[in-house]
């Protein structure tokens, strides 16, 4: 399968040229955030750096980091670098307790988003003759609309079906002749099984390409999905804080995801010392956006662990490649595309009483779908002689979690002190999913 | 006439019930009556024991969740329709039954009963001259 390149100029330019463009854009961005965002200015002053220190992309390391907490602390619009009259779109992280992280886009940001998604889709061989079925959720989540803009930009026929309603997905896949499926890898597996169980013949479907992301998946999952759906599956990576999907993408050689680094400069740092690591070393991925206007973000700590490779790819792209993320430098879990921190479960449990009962989250992948089970120790103070009251307790926890986090969960009440404690600290999460 | 019944929260795991009785046996606490209620997820073991305070303490010490609830016990003749008469009293007094358990070892049936209003139940039973059984009597069985 030979695919083409959407923006040959930027995607294949020499490393020197790229460095020069990144440096120019970084200088402009630092200028803008310093003068337009009081929070950034204060942080930079505290670190003893001003815009005059930033001469090239090499000077990035002088700048302070930005974290998810910074976004929360400035909820909702505190880090925006444009007046709200120039912001034409807001997205927000789904399913977090407390303050969500809010991102804003200017008209040009949306254009940049379309551009990077057009590169992503072109890298997967998607073009104007294709029918792209977008089964990512539309809404505050960036997945659906990000793919949507890319699909329109490359001239494909976009089917904005959004997530869920499997029966309908299959019907339109057949009737419209979808050639491209965009969704989470776990939903793709699920759809593959649904196709098997339906009366549809694979021969009657025109599907050839899958664009899968928003949750971690292994090469083995990729092979399995490719075999089951008889398609070529492409990985995409993105996060709303940077832009949404479109930060990096697979080419046909699938030897690492190409980062659209003329827009998002990556670094790899040691999550403990915060030092920048040399090429090829495993560490935490950090991004600085250098073209975004609404919410420029400097040295954002993604918490994803990966490596970067700067050699030219067989596809001809010079864009730096990142390996599949191997884990996180924090305790965030990604379940069915939803980000979940154990602390969110804790805050739900905390609402039930003054102190948190001991709990354990068990994440499993059953029939290619992630399942979440919560074990809660029934301490004396929760314990009632009546079965109905105990069952209500379980139901109450379940409903609370489902409504605040947006994930279905099985709640299992267990005896006190049965959840294992190591060194006095309870184990909070058991992730049984096999991740490579 | 109120009897303190212990109830213990149990996960559905083999060996758990045995542990409870083992602990009680070791400190010489006798179990006069018991019943296990099970759901798909967990079980509740209810017991009338010779020393509820000590039993509770020792079980808690062994990390069990224990709850003490008030129940009553009564006897009826071991004849067809006897329990029906008793239940009619409750129904007419609009007393709700949470659960009951019982056994008929000879010419009498012994029942442990939990209702939504224990004191009212006792009053009604006394009014109808039912044979109520006190805790100390029960422990002697």
UniProtKB/TrEMBL annotation, chain A:
<dbReference type="Pfam" id="PF00501">
    <property type="entry name" value="AMP-binding"/>
</dbReference>
<dbReference type="GO" id="GO:0047475">
    <property type="term" value="F:phenylacetate-CoA ligase activity"/>
</dbReference>
<dbReference type="InterPro" id="IPR000873">
    <property type="entry name" value="AMP-dep_synth/lig_dom"/>
</dbReference>
<dbReference type="InterPro" id="IPR051414">
    <property type="entry name" value="Adenylate-forming_Reductase"/>
</dbReference>
<feature type="domain" description="AMP-dependent synthetase/ligase">
    <location>
        <begin position="93"/>
        <end position="288"/>
    </location>
</feature>
<comment type="function">
    <text>Catalyzes the activation of phenylacetic acid (PA) to phenylacetyl-CoA (PA-CoA).</text>
</comment>
<dbReference type="Pfam" id="PF14535">
    <property type="entry name" value="AMP-binding_C_2"/>
</dbReference>
<comment type="pathway">
    <text>Aromatic compound metabolism; phenylacetate degradation.</text>
</comment>
<feature type="domain" description="AMP-dependent ligase C-terminal">
    <location>
        <begin position="337"/>
        <end position="433"/>
    </location>
</feature>
<dbReference type="InterPro" id="IPR045851">
    <property type="entry name" value="AMP-bd_C_sf"/>
</dbReference>
<keyword id="KW-0547">Nucleotide-binding</keyword>
<protein>
    <recommendedName>
        <fullName>Phenylacetate-coenzyme A ligase</fullName>
        <ecNumber>6.2.1.30</ecNumber>
    </recommendedName>
</protein>
<comment type="similarity">
    <text>Belongs to the phenylacetyl-CoA ligase family.</text>
</comment>
<dbReference type="InterPro" id="IPR042099">
    <property type="entry name" value="ANL_N_sf"/>
</dbReference>
<dbReference type="InterPro" id="IPR028154">
    <property type="entry name" value="AMP-dep_Lig_C"/>
</dbReference>
<dbReference type="GO" id="GO:0010124">
    <property type="term" value="P:phenylacetate catabolic process"/>
</dbReference>
<dbReference type="GO" id="GO:0000166">
    <property type="term" value="F:nucleotide binding"/>
</dbReference>
<comment type="subunit">
    <text>Monomer.</text>
</comment>
<keyword id="KW-0436">Ligase</keyword>
<dbReference type="InterPro" id="IPR011880">
    <property type="entry name" value="PA_CoA_ligase"/>
</dbReference>
TrEMBL record, chain B:
<dbReference type="InterPro" id="IPR045865">
    <property type="entry name" value="ACT-like_dom_sf"/>
</dbReference>
<dbReference type="Pfam" id="PF19571">
    <property type="entry name" value="ACT_8"/>
</dbReference>
<dbReference type="InterPro" id="IPR002912">
    <property type="entry name" value="ACT_dom"/>
</dbReference>
<dbReference type="InterPro" id="IPR045739">
    <property type="entry name" value="ACT_dom_pair"/>
</dbReference>
<protein>
    <submittedName>
        <fullName>Acetolactate synthase</fullName>
    </submittedName>
</protein>
<feature type="domain" description="ACT">
    <location>
        <begin position="71"/>
        <end position="141"/>
    </location>
</feature>
């Amino acid at each position: 399968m030979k695919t083409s390149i959407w923006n040959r100029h930027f995607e294949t330019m020499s490393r020197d040229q790229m460095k020069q463009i990144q440096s120019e854009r970084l200088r402009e961005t630092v200028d803008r955030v310093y003068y337009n965002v009081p929070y950034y200015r204060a942080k930079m002053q505290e670190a003893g750096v001003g815009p005059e220190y930033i001469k090239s992309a090499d000077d990035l390391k002088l700048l302070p980091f930005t974290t998810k907490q910074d976004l929360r602390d400035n909820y909702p619009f505190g880090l925006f670098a444009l007046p709200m009259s120039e912001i034409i779109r807001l997205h927000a992280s789904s399913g977090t307790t407390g303050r969500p992280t809010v991102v804003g886009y200017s008209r040009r940001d949306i254009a940049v988003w379309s551009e990077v998604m057009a590169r992503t889709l072109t890298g997967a061989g998607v073009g104007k003759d294709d029918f792209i079925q977008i089964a990512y959720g539309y809404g505050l989540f960036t997945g659906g609309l990000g793919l949507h803009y890319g699909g329109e930009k490359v001239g494909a026929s976009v089917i904005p079906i959004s997530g869920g309603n499997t029966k309908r997905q299959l019907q339109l896949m057949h009737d419209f002749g979808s050639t491209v499926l965009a969704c989470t890898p776990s939903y793709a597996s699920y759809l593959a099984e649904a196709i098997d169980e339906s009366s549809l013949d694979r021969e009657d479907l025109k599907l050839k390409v899958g664009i899968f992301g928003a949750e971690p998946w292994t090469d083995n999952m990729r092979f399995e999905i490719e075999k089951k759906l008889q398609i070529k599956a492409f990985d995409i990576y993105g996060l709303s804080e940077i832009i949404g999907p479109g930060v990096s993408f697979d080419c046909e050689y699938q030897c690492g995801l190409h980062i659209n680094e003329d827009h998002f400069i990556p670094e790899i740092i040691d999550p403990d010392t915060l030092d920048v690591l040399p090429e090829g070393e495993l560490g935490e991925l950090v991004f600085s956006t250098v073209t975004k206007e609404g919410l420029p973000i400097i040295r954002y700590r993604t918490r994803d662990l990966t490596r970067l490779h700067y050699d030219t790819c067989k596809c001809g792209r010079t864009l730096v490649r990142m390996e599949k993320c191997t884990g996180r430098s924090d305790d965030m879990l990604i379940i069915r595309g939803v980000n979940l921190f154990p602390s969110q479960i804790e805050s739900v449990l905390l609402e039930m009483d003054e102190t948190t009962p001991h709990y354990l989250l068990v994440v499993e992948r059953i029939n290619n779908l992630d399942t979440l089970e919560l074990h809660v120790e029934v301490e004396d103070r929760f314990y009632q002689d009546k079965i109905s009251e105990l069952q209500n307790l379980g139901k109450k926890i379940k409903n609370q979690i489902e409504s605040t986090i947006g994930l279905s969960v099985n709640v299992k009440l267990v005896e006190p002190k049965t959840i294992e404690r190591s060194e006095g600290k309870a184990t909070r999460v058991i992730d049984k999913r096999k991740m490579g | 006439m109120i009897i303190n019944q212990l109830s213990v929260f149990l996960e559905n795991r083999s060996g758990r019930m045995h542990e409870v009785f083992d602990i009680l046996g070791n400190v010489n606490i006798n179990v006069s009556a018991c019943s296990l209620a099970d759901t798909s997820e967990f079980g509740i073991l209810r017991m009338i024991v010779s020393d509820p305070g000590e039993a509770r303490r020792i079980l808690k010490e062994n990390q069990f969740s224990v709850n003490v609830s008030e129940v009553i016990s009564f006897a009826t003749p071991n004849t067809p329709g006897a329990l029906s008469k008793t239940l009619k009293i409750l129904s007419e007094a609009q007393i709700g039954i949470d659960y009951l358990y019982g056994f008929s070892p000879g010419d009498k049936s012994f029942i442990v009963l939990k209702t939504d209003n224990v004191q009212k139940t006792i009053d009604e039973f006394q009014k109808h001259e039912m044979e109520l059984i006190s805790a100390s009597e029960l422990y002697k069985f």
